[in-house]
Amino acid sequence: MKKKYALAALGLAGIVALAGCGGGGAGSSGGSGAEGSGDKGDLLIGVSMPTQTSERWIADGNAVQDGLEEAGYQVDLQYAGDDIPTQGQQIDQMITKGADLLVIAAIDGTALSSQLDAAAAANIPVISYDRLIRDSEHVDFYVTFDNYKVGVQQATSLLTGLGVLDEDGKETGEKGPFNIELFAGSLDDNNAHFFWQGAMDTLQPFIDDGVLAVPSGQTDIEQAAILRWQQETAQKRMEDLLTSTYAGGTKLDGVLSPYDGLSRGIITALQGTGGLGPAIADGLPIVTGQDAEIGSVALIDQGVQFASIFKDTRKLAEQSVVVAQAILEGEEPEANDTETYDNGVKVVPSYLLQSDIVYKDNITPLLVDSGYWTQAEVDSGVAE
Ligand code: BGC
C-alpha cells in the first residue's frame, strides 16, 4: 500500500504540474489524431470513480492512474462522493476539457446516459469499469470480475462456515437447519443483481431442502438491498431484524453479506446485542463479505468475520489500461465474454477477471504474499 500511495502522490504532483501548464495538453488533445504517430503525453484520460469511503475504490483509482501514467497518458482522476449529480458534472467537465477516453465506475449505472451521449458526440470512447453502465449504446467496453461467480463464492463461503460444505466444496451431509439472513447491495448497481443471483442460485436448493431457513421471510432482493452500499444502513437493518425476528430466542447462524462495509455494519449490530442476545448465544453467526478490505481482513484473522472475496483491483486496473491503450491505438480490445453483459441496449464486450474466497487460513498466501496487504496491516486492521 505504501508503494501505491507514494506513486499516487507522484501522480498528484504530475497533475498539479499539468494544471500549471494551463491545460495545453487538453487543448492539443482535441486534435489528437492529427498529431499522428501519437505522442501519448498529449492524450488525456478521464477516470471517474464513485467514492472514497471504501478502500477498494481508492486502490482502483490509484492503480488506474499509475498504470495510465506509466503508459504515458495524462490522467484526470475524480471521485464523486457517491453523489450522482457530482459524478455527472465531473464527467461533463472531463468531456469539456477534451478527454480522449473515459474510464467510469458508475454510482448509478442508469444515470449517465446524457454524459455518454455527449462523449459519443465528441468521439470519446468509454470504458465501463467494474460496474456496467446501463441504458446507453455508447459503452465501448466493460472490464470487471465474473460477478455472478462472486455471488456463488459468497454463498459458498457461507455454506462452508455453516459446515454444509467442506473445504473442497463437497456437501458434508449436515442437515441444519440453520437460520440465515440475506443482504444485497445497491439496486442501482448492476453488480448487486449478479452477486445476488449467483448467491441465491447456490443457496436456494438448501432452502428448498430445509437445510437453511430465512426466519424473517425477507428473501427478495428489494427487501435485502442496501442503498449505496452504506454500512450504517446495513447496521440498522440488522438491528431491525434482530428486534423483529430474533428477540424471542431464535438463533441466527449466518448472514449473507455482499460487501465488507456492510459486513462490518452487520457485525456491529450483532455485537450490540452484547452477547446477551439469544440470537448469538453461541458466538457470532457466520458473516460473509467482499473486497478484502483491511478492516475486514483483520476481523477474519481474529475469527470475527468469516470470509470475504478478494478481487485484485491491481489486475482490474491493469486490464483497463490494456483496453484503453488498444482503443486509443485503433485496435479492438480483447474480450473474453461477449454474451453476459447486456446493458439494456446492447451486449457490451467484456473482459472478466477471477476472484478468490478469503478465509482465515489463506490470508497469507492470497493477500500478504501477493503484496496486497502487509502482515502489519493485517495485524492492525489499518492501511498504511
Ligand atoms: C463492486 C464491489 C463493491 C461494491 C461496493 C460493487 O459494484 O463490484 O466490489 O463491494 O460495489 O462498493
From TrEMBL:
It comes from the Bacteria. Residues 1-19 form the signal peptide. Residues 45-332 form the Periplasmic binding protein domain. This is Sugar ABC transporter substrate-binding protein. The lineage of its organism: Bacteria, Bacillati, Actinomycetota, Actinomycetes, Micrococcales. PROSITE patterns: PROKAR_LIPOPROTEIN. Its main location: other. Pfam families: Peripla_BP_4. It is found in: Cell envelope. InterPro entries: Bact_Solute-Bind_Prot2, ChvE-like, Peripla_BP_I, SBP_2_dom. Gene3D superfamilies: 3.40.50.2300. The keyword DNA-binding does not apply. The keyword Nucleotide-binding does not apply. Keywords: Signal. SUPFAM superfamilies: Periplasmic binding protein-like I.
